[in-house]
Amino acid sequence: MATTVKVSGVGITLELLLWRHGKRRGATSARLSETLALNPGLAALGPFLTLGTLVTIPDLPPVTERARTTAPAVSLFD
Predict the structure, then answer these.
(1) Which DSSP category does 3 fall into?
(2) Tell me, what's the pLDDT at 67?
(3) Cα gap 33→37, rounded to integer Å
(4) Residue 21: which of 41, 38, 6, 39 has the closest Cα?
(5) What pLDDT shows up at residue 65?
(6) For site-directed labelling of 76, which of 8, 11, 29, 46 has its Cα 20 to 30 A away?
(7) Which helix (H) or strand (E) holds 4?
(8) DSSP notation for 30-46
(9) How far, in whole angstroms, is CA 8 from its chain's centroid?
(10) Residue numbers in the chain where pLDDT is lower than 70
């Protein structure tokens, strides 16, 4: 089930909104096109969402799918 959130700050982009909702690296790019499909006309607002805009965000994929889509950690000291 999708979640509807209200933009409550200035300078918020759709990618930042998705990252804040997902709190996972890689969670934004996979859901960006789906979010735009759920919100017709959202792309016409420009890069920054206006204060008070309601955005419907799709749910995160199950943990097993998320684990396959994230990149492995890289250490500079190995």
Answers:
(1) E
(2) 54
(3) 6
(4) 6
(5) 52
(6) 29
(7) strand 3-6
(8) HHHHHHHHHSTTSGGG-
(9) 15
(10) 24-28, 61-71, 78
CB contact set of 23 (below 8 Å; sequence gap of 6+): none
Q: Are 48 and 13 in contact (CB under 8 A)?
A: yes
Quick one: pLDDT at residue 25? 58
Specify the pTM: 0.70
Burial of 9 (0-12, 13-18, 19+ CB in 10 A): exposed
d(CA 75, CA 24): 19
Question: What is the H or E stretch that residue 58 is in?
Answer: none
Scan for tokens 């419907």, then name that residue.
56
| Residues 26 and 69: beta-carbon distance below 8 Å | yes
Radius of gyration of the chain (CA): 14
